[in-house]
């Protein structure tokens, strides 16, 4: 089953085509029933069978007919339906060979055993309608050859002097008679029984066992009932070949009912298989209902459950990467040349949407795959929207980060300008005033001296205020976060313990972490009335956590005022998170910043 | 005393130059960046270089790096660094190797003209000058079970002036104490802090600063 191409999924046939198919099926059904009546009459009138045996023989054919027609209607693309219908007709017409009419006898004796070859073919072809390999094909061809060749040969030599095997003693007339050779007829018939019922049936059992052993779990469950019934049929055939040489009427009576029961079981098993598929589709309906909430993982599981294949994998096609990924986002390689896995591509030709990697037996139930595909497509649409939304969010986050970075840069620029321009000028101006004051000392009035002193101290205040709030101090750039935070902590009028990693972090992380820390500590001094504070910086798993805690009176609130909100904005702009816990025992600010 | 001035603010440079000249210093060079300072120092052989920390091109720590280079090349040159912000760690590290002839002041300290001139003089003579704000920060930390807590108020005052780099004489005049009293205080301080007695002023400063920094570090580790 290395065949990966999915069978063309059966489209919902347009009403008219479907109507024709149903009409055809009804016609075949009626024809088969008429044939059954004829076969029944021949059994009673010309073969002298008891009614129940005649009825049973006919029932076998009718069971196949029903199963074959249903299969044909439901799976128009599958050869199994026609094959089983043909088998049914072969089983029914086989009974006509018992007729005393020379034409009926000759024709149907010649083709009657075709029915058994067809039964064998049908079973081997289930459920896909295809044979597995050359060995199976060889066995089936051999069976067809045997069932046509031997009866034809028998007809050449049968003159009615000795009854045929399985026939009543009444003589029939072969239209093909060349020369009467009862000994040759008996030899041919016994050889046929040994070769067909003995040899081929044994080979057939072997093929079935091989199938069961090789089949993946799901296919095995589907195949098991049918194939077991088939084994019973074949065993019966083997016994038939044995009892042909042992005259045991008692055994023959039992063999007859064994055959009837086993052969009727075959279409029964087929019905069971069809029923399974129908139940599976019902489960799939439930899956569809759950889809709204389903994650890709859950969807894959649900699909696997619904189609009864625990090995099922669902791959989502990523056009930009030209590959499939599974529910976890891992790349899914489609198996090639693996007999135990088949692949069904979902979506229009050339534009895959998703791929199902599944048990090959599912190829024989394309409705299931189609429904699963529809379900997957819905989920895919969800996933796509999800991904789109995520992409947009990323876009917004990126633009926010860019805005924040631009603001940072602007802040740095302003600060630099202040330092290198305005502040220097203020200091220079104060120095001028101070020089003037010195020159005036002793000569000027006390008023002027006091005025100059005040002016200088005002200027100094202005300078100090700016200096104290250096937004991006050189120590941060030069020596990193730990040194910069320690520097801030040392300027605090209360003990601040600092625990920070000594190694360098990405500049934007250092910048935000420093900003958060210095602002938080400034708040501690201004509002908390704390006796001490701690700063803890930790790097773990790609996230830097900055925690500033004090033992003050609490009252910090992210929603009140703009200070903390601005801090949170700054942290969030870098993809981080700021949490504030504040109560009567103190305040704890925790900022988490991703490294990337 | 010959002085070289390195500051990218022309206005401030001019102001400082005038103040220094009026006080009898000879300002032999005024430059706006580190490279020009090196050239001027080589050319003019000043006694002291007054260097702003932030200078072009990056306005971060050009002055510090220039100071480090000058110290390595000319150990006899006094260097007074003017900084915009208090960064004690940085300041202390600069003193670590050789505190002689080195000073670190906050920029606006120049407005206390007498203190500033005194610092320039000390550094020019191979002494030491540390900004009182740096000392205050180091001493102001409340550390439990620190020997600093055992110092009397007067002793703390003396320790602070010592740490700034002032001589016993200067401390006498600053606190209006007799030389004998100051010596006693210094002796007590060294005893209480467990420091070895140091004859030279700048060794004394180094010992004190190292002590203070260690105390600050111990505080960092406390919960």
Q: What does this protein look like?
A:
The complex is a heterodimer of chains A (596) and B (223). Chain A is an alpha+beta fold. Chain A has 16 helices and ten strands. In chain A, strands 3-2-1-5-4 form a five-stranded antiparallel β-sheet. Chain A has a five-stranded mixed β-sheet with strand order 6-7-8-10-9. Chain B has helices at residues 10-22, 34-44, 62-73, 88-97, 113-124, 132-139, 153-164, 168-175, 179-193, 201-221; strands spanning 2-6, 26-31, 48-52, 78-83, 102-106, 128-130. Chain B is globular and about 50 Å long. Residues 219-223 of chain B have low confidence and may be disordered. In chain B, 55% of the residues lie in helices and 13% in strands. Chain A binds chain B through residues 416, 419-420, 423-425, 427-432, 434-435, 438-439, 456, 460, 463-464, 467-468, 470, 473-475, 477-479, 483, 486-487, 489-491, 493-495, 497-498, 534, and chain B through 7-9, 11-12, 14-16, 18-19, 22, 53-54, 59-61, 84-90, 106-108, 110-111, 113, 137-138, 140-143, 216, 219-223.
Task: Give a quick summary of the entry.
The complex is a heterodimer of chains A (596) and B (223). Chain A has helices spanning 15-45, 51-74, 80-94, 102-112, 114-125, 134-157, 182-214, 217-243, 249-290, 296-307, 366-440, 446-468, 474-479, 481-491, 507-528, 563-573, and strands at residues 313-318, 323-325, 331-332, 342-346, 354-358, 496-499, 533-540, 543-550, 577-583, 586-594.
What is the secondary structure topology, with strand pairs?
The complex is a heterodimer of chains A (596) and B (223).
Chain A: H1 15-45, H2 51-74, H3 80-94, H4 102-112, H5 114-125, H6 134-157, H7 182-214, H8 217-243, H9 249-290, H10 296-307, E1 313-318, E2 323-325, E3 331-332, E4 342-346, E5 354-358, H11 366-440, H12 446-468, H13 474-479, H14 481-491, E6 496-499, H15 507-528, E7 533-540, E8 543-550, H16 563-573, E9 577-583, E10 586-594
Parallel strand pairs in A: 6-7
Antiparallel strand pairs in A: 1-2, 1-5, 2-3, 4-5, 7-8, 8-10, 9-10
Chain B: E1 2-6, H1 10-22, E2 26-31, H2 34-44, E3 48-52, H3 62-73, E4 78-83, H4 88-97, E5 102-106, H5 113-124, E6 128-130, H6 132-139, H7 153-164, H8 168-175, H9 179-193, H10 201-221
Parallel strand pairs in B: 1-2, 1-3, 3-4, 4-5, 5-6
